Amino acid sequence: MGRKKINKPRRRRKDRTALDRYAASYSCGHCHSAPSWARGPNGIGHAIVRHDDTCPVLAGSLSDLPDALRAAEATHGIVVLVGDRHFTVHGSPEEKAAVLAAALDKWGL
After folding, report:
1. CA 63, CA 52: separation in Å to the nearest integer?
2. Is 72 inside a domain boundary?
3. N or C: which terminus of the chain carries fewer CB neighbours within 10 A?
4. What is the DSSP string of 23-36?
5. pLDDT tens by residue, 50-105
6. How many independent structural domains does the chain possess?
7. Angstrom distance (rounded) from CA 19 to CA 7
8. Looking at the domain assignment, is residue 13 inside a domain?
9. CB contact at 8 A, 68 and 86
């Protein structure tokens, strides 16, 4: 199993992006959610969390911010709060600062 087989190409390993790791480490504290991620038309990835029908987060009575903070901490990301919305940013400290500055500029903060 560990030896190299002649004339057999190596399988590519799954690319574990920061967003993939974030989705894998996200878990709702109130239901058995199924997190995944997808890349939007603008090229930016978004975490998709499918909560159970009875989940209070889905109903809007509770925030999913604590779950997002736990997942961001596990993947070395930062969570940016803007009004009643939040988003997670991954990357180098310079990339995080640039995204945060752009968000503050966009929302006039």
Report:
1. 15
2. yes
3. N
4. HHH---SSS--EEE
5. 889 999 988 888 888 888 888 888 878 777 776 667 777 777 778 777 777 777 77
6. 1
7. 34
8. no
9. yes
In a domain, 5, yes or no: no
pTM here is: 0.61
Using a 10 angstrom Cβ sphere, with 0-12 exposed, 13-18 middle and 19 or more buried, the burial of residue 108 is exposed
Tokens of 103: 């968000």
**Alpha-carbon gap, residue 23 to 84, rounded angstroms:** 21
**pLDDT tens digit sequence for 14-42:** 556 777 788 888 888 889 888 888 877 77
Distance of CA 54 to the CA centre of its chain: 23
What Rg do the C-alpha atoms of the chain give, in angstroms? 18
Q: Are 38 and 48 in contact (CB under 8 A)?
A: yes
